[in-house]
């Protein structure tokens, strides 16, 4: 029948209509043939009867165009970058006499990773034992950051090849802090741990940490701890801390000599203090009183130092009445020939000043007032 539609043509037309609704491009491709529908580049054919159309299988044409454009733009950008890199390399004109250095900041996190290894006990190759506590560490980290261990591991000491190393005379908490400092360059200093930590860091030669401890102590100097801190600083030979503690003690001398800690000062230290022109006193009598009280606190051990200490006291500047009625009557001075000579020397100066003597008697520094008392005396 000439007016009838050939079998199968209606089905094909329906598919084309459906495709044109979902995807104009696919519809155009489908309308070109009535036997197969090619949705993707392929050599296989698909029978019309087997097609199950799902709208999710198709992408609108405008989206396809946008995606293709984005892909093309990305390819062009990548190509441009490659051309720029090639141009840079050509411009460098690298030859045998030149080098190209690269730097990656991520390597700066290496110690952070090593600290994680320390915490998780990964790849540790040495055991540091202190007070029955064991710290698993990495030799290379300890040697790189703690001079004590660097010498131990690199200068042929017996411990260099040992797995277990025992550390004595150091507080274990302080050692733990120093080991963690080796990995992190961080430490917590408190009033409770600073002395132990200063001792440990001095012994292990971690100077940065030792100086941080010294700075902490300098900031916390007070009347009640200055003499103790000074003694500790002298024990560890921390010169900057010694100097600052001495300055504090000199400035507060009149207050400190009223405290029990004053009697703990050593003979050598006391002599250095009273020999200073910066001693914070207003009357030289206070210096003599401090000396005689210090000696009488333990006369059996300290009487032998009285003459040396009295030599640093500016006796000629002391009130004449006090000199003659108190100092001259002191039994410890009466029984010491050197002390009596010092007293007589002061008397000569006083009598000369009162025009009672014409004998020349050079006194030198003995008659030069200390800085804080200079305004009191008329020489």
Automatic annotation (TrEMBL):
Domain of life: Eukaryota
Residue stretches spanning the membrane: none
Coiled-coil ranges from the UniProt annotation: 67-97
Keywords, ordered alphabetically: Coiled coil, Kelch repeat, Repeat
Family annotation (InterPro entries): BACK, BTB/POZ_dom, SKP1/BTB/POZ_sf
Pfam family, one: BTB
Domain BTB: 124-191
PANTHER family recorded: KELCH PROTEIN, KELCH-LIKE PROTEIN 8
Protein name (database record): BTB domain-containing protein
Protein source organism: Rotaria magnacalcarata
Lineage: Eukaryota, Metazoa, Spiralia, Gnathifera, Rotifera
